[in-house]
Write a structure and sequence with these properties.
With about 110 residues, this protein is mainly beta. The protein folds into two domains: about 70 residues, Roll (SH3 type barrels); about 30 residues, no CATH class. Helix content is about 0%, strand content about 50%. It contains no helices and ten strands. The two termini are about 15 Å apart.
Length: about 110
């Protein structure tokens, strides 16, 4: 997956279109992510003990990876992700993510 935890993303579609947030969790097998403050749902929790109050618990739900775009940390614009392969001294290759607009590598 091109999106990793702690990346900043922008929502392209849905009820939260235009919002930005930090990625909390990634589910690669389902191609879904959880973003802080985006796609927040309410869950009603029943009282368990006598005299306890029921309440609403708000939590960010999963959303499809196709509805978001990664925000480049250097140019601060939503961008597609490319890859750059570099070679180390030991002959090993290292693949890093790059911004398609400004060509800089992501941290």
């Amino acid at each position: 997956m091109k999106i990793k935890r702690n990346d900043t993303i922008k929502v392209l579609a849905g009820k939260d279109r235009g919002k930005t947030g930090k990625v909390l969790r990634v589910f690669p097998e389902q191609e879904k992510i959880v973003v802080e403050g985006v796609n927040v749902l309410a869950k009603h929790v029943r009282p368990r003990k006598k005299g306890e109050q029921g309440q609403k618990v708000y939590f960010p739900a999963r959303m499809a990876i196709s509805n978001i775009m990664l925000v480049c940390p250097s140019c601060a614009k939503p961008t597609r992700v490319g890859y750059q392969v570099s070679h180390n001294e030991g002959g090993r290759t290292h693949k890093e993510r790059t911004c398609k607009k400004c060509k800089t590598a992501f941290a």
